[in-house]
Design goal:
By secondary structure, the protein is α/β, with parallel strands linked by helices. It folds into four domains: 14-161, DNA polymerase, domain 1, CATH 1.10.150; 164-256, Beta Polymerase, domain 2, CATH 3.30.460; 273-337, DNA polymerase, thumb domain (Beta Polymerase, domain 3); 343-583, TIM Barrel, CATH 3.20.20.140. 43% of the residues lie in helices and 15% in strands. It has a seven-stranded parallel β-sheet with strand order 11-12-13-14-15-16-17. A five-stranded mixed β-sheet has the order 2-4-7-6-5, sandwiched between helices. Strands 8-9-10 form a three-stranded antiparallel β-sheet. Helix 13 (261-269) packs across helix 15. The longest helix has 17 residues, at 14-30.
């Protein structure tokens, strides 16, 4: 094993600082601390997660962190501590006072700080196994705030928590980019690609699989194991290595010669089920397919590129996002694969958060990305003293300064339990596009949840159902509802379904995307961005669309704005469409 280089001083990224602040908020809440103090840490964490520039870089350039939204002098000092040393005094003090099990329980769905405190305090348990035994003995239901149903759900959550950890793809995208750039700088590297579930666009990944094409494997391995973000090298051989980053993410590297790069990339991209289908097809033809190439006997027929391997097997090349053994091999054999939607097809971003921030930087970033329109979406319940009229005036002013960009005023309104909207008709009439989103009562019985969503789809003002299933990756399951019925209703009513680029949501799921395609429902992509940098999250929504077999015709914001609005405003009697046409 090559010697480890001296690692630089630990410095936390914004997301890691946000995690520390969220932990502080949770620990304070367990102690029933002042709610305003708890909320201050939560808001600061939210700000840091949205902010694209690293706090450490801001400090290095002399930026006053207290000038960031929601960050005062006290929190700015703690951010500096975390960015420069990896910890801060209040975090360490609270951690000493909090049982270790509480941190584990906070990761389980449905358990907030107060419920965690109640469980640990009442049951005196010190491990997940002890808590599981208490639940099986019926002791959890006796704790205040729990019951038989909560006890059963807790047991399920414990079983799931003990499965291997997977992270949202958005959480590892930064590491993936840095590693690829780092490897491409190594001597002798011709290509470097992240394979595995990351390349297939799965919403969560267990680790990162890197495939490198090079004839200088030893130099590449030395370079790779010298990456400054590595915490531990588990294995390092002539062509393979496994390391764990300081973030806890495992990374596997495989170096292959250029003539085998395509076959290795195909093999390590997967999925396992897709690879098994390809191997069976090769066997039928008297061939052998492995990570080194496609062979007839000892003679290699293909291996340099994935395309030539698929071609030799009599298949059209299958995009990585479709390689899940869901009929894609048969579609490739019969030339029936869809032409998937691509980045240049997207004309506009249908969900940019409008929270009173400066619009000009977002518009400039959108133009740089080749977009021609943006839907700036406000929450009526969060406008404060401002009004939709104020937001429209701000958009019109921004429009004057950027004549090539067209701005649309949208609002997102909560869906109440009965399917009605938490906004008066006058508010709904004041927007160009109305999004409806469920933001509470996620655990209704299936029949009630289904009727709730059907009711909102029938509302004449609703144009788009935002983050339809409401799932939060690894934290909240999708709503229990009759999705074929809901998607069919959306298709019939002309209500579009959103794919959110929020990396914690990526909702609709890929399965529901394909269902929407088959049932004729329109899809829109939105970044859910609050900053110019976050506009790139529409690429995550695009990835989800591709996994759902969507072509450009299935995604509404591949159309020019006028055609899009005509599709969204399907009710000619609505007062929105005439005024909107006049505004445009």
């Amino acid at each position: 094993m090559p010697p480890r280089p001296k690692r630089p001083q630990k410095r936390l990224r914004n997301t890691e600082i946000a995690e520390k602040f969220e932990a502080i908020a949770d620990m304070l809440a367990m102690q029933s601390a002042n709610p305003f103090r708890v909320r201050a840490y939560q808001n600061a964490a939210r700000t840091l997660r949205r902010y694209a520039v690293e706090a450490g870089d801001l400090i290095a350039h002399g930026q006053d962190l207290s000038e960031l939204p929601g960050i005062g002098v006290d929190l700015a000092g703690k951010i500096r501590d975390l960015a420069e040393t990896g910890t801060t005094e209040i975090y360490e003090e609270l951690k000493r006072q909090t049982p270790e099990l509480a941190f584990t329980l906070m990761q389980l769905p449905g358990l907030g700080p107060k419920r965690v405190h109640a469980l640990v305090d009442a049951l005196k348990v010190k491990s997940l196994d002890e808590l599981r035994q208490a639940a099986r003995a019926g002791r959890v239901r006796e704790v205040s705030g729990f019951g038989p149903k909560a006890e059963a759900e807790l047991l399920k959550a414990i079983e799931k928590a003990e499965m291997p950890i997977r992270r949202s793809i958005g959480a590892v995208t930064g590491d993936a980019r840095i590693l690829v750039d780092y490897l491409k700088a190594a001597p002798g590297v011709e290509e470097a690609v992240v394979a595995g579930s990351f390349r297939r666009g799965r919403e969560s990944v267990g680790d990162l699989d890197l495939v490198v094409s090079s004839r200088a494997a030893r130099a590449v391995m030395t370079h790779f194991t010298g990456f400054p973000g590595i915490a531990r090298v588990s294995a390092a051989g002539p062509t393979r290595a496994t390391v764990t980053l300081e973030t806890g993410l495992q990374v596997d590297l495989r170096v292959v010669k250029p003539e085998s790069f395509g076959s290795a990339l195909l093999y390590f991209t997967g999925s396992k089920a897709h690879n098994l289908e390809l191997r069976a097809l090769a066997k039928e033809r008297g061939l052998k397919l492995n990570e080194y190439g496609l062979y007839r006997g000892e003679r290699r027929l293909a291996g340099r590129t994935e395309a030539e391997i698929y071609g030799k097997l009599g298949l059209d090349e299958i995009p990585p996002e479709l390689r899940e053994a869901r009929e894609e091999v048969e579609a490739a054999r019969t030339h029936a694969l869809p032409k998937l939607v691509e980045r240049p097809d997207i004309k506009g971003d249908l969900h940019v958060r409008d929270e009173g921030q400066a619009i000009a930087p977002i518009v400039a970033a959108a133009e740089t990305r080749g977009l021609s329109y943006l839907a700036m979406v406000s929450r009526p319940d969060r406008l404060g003293k401002a009004s939709l009229g104020d937001r429209r005036a701000a958009l019109q002013e921004a429009q004057k300064r950027a004549p090539r960009m067209r701005l649309v005023l949208g609002i997102e309104v909560d869906v109440l339990t009965d399917g009605s909207l938490a906004a008066a008709d006058e508010v709904l009439k004041g927007a160009d596009v109305v999004f409806a989103g469920v933001n509470g009562q996620f655990d209704l019985p299936q029949a009630q949840q289904t009727e709730r969503l059907l009711a909102v789809l029938r509302n004449p003002y609703v144009a788009i159902l935002a983050h339809p299933t409401c799932r939060i990756i690894n934290r909240r399951e999708p709503l229990d509802a009759d999705w074929p019925r809901i998607i069919r209703e959306a298709s019939q009513r002309g209500v579009a379904l959103e794919i959110s680029g929020d990396p914690e949501r990526l909702d609709l799921t890929d399965v529901h995307c394909r269902m929407a395609r088959d049932l004729g429902a329109g899809i829109v992509l939105g970044s859910d961005a609050r900053t110019p940098e976050e506009l790139e999250r529409i690429d995550l929504a695009l990835m989800q669309a591709r996994r759902g077999w969507l072509a450009p015709r299935n995604v509404l914001n591949t159309a020019p704005l006028d055609a899009l609005l005509k599709r969204l405003h399907r009710h000619p009697t609505s007062s929105i469409a005439p005024r909107l046409a006049k505004a445009l």
